Amino acid sequence: MKKTKEDMQAEILSALCHPNRIKIIKSLRKDILCNCELMPLLRLEQSNLSRHLKMLENAGILISWKEGLRVNYKISDKRIFDLLDIAERIVSKKIEEFMQIMENYTEKFMVVR
Fold this sequence. Notes:
The longest helix has 30 residues, at about 80-110. Helix content is about 65%, strand content about 10%. By secondary structure, it is an alpha+beta fold.
């Protein structure tokens, strides 16, 4: 079966749909890290971390290679950070709007004593 562009896009976006995978990607923003460094950094158990790393690798987001006992990981295309940055800006805007609504609500319904 041939994969369409949309199938490939969905695979990438699906791989991003977990907080631990987003944390993994953010951890690799500035440096190559091995799984032994990611595990304590993210406070994940080895099996859990491996599952997330494999999903990111299968989606083409990560590249891995072995050096002795170490398995190193790096981001395959730095533009993945653009996606995360856009999502972060959207979330920040939503939080800002929510805070404004709550502030207006509080002012409107605040009882002066």
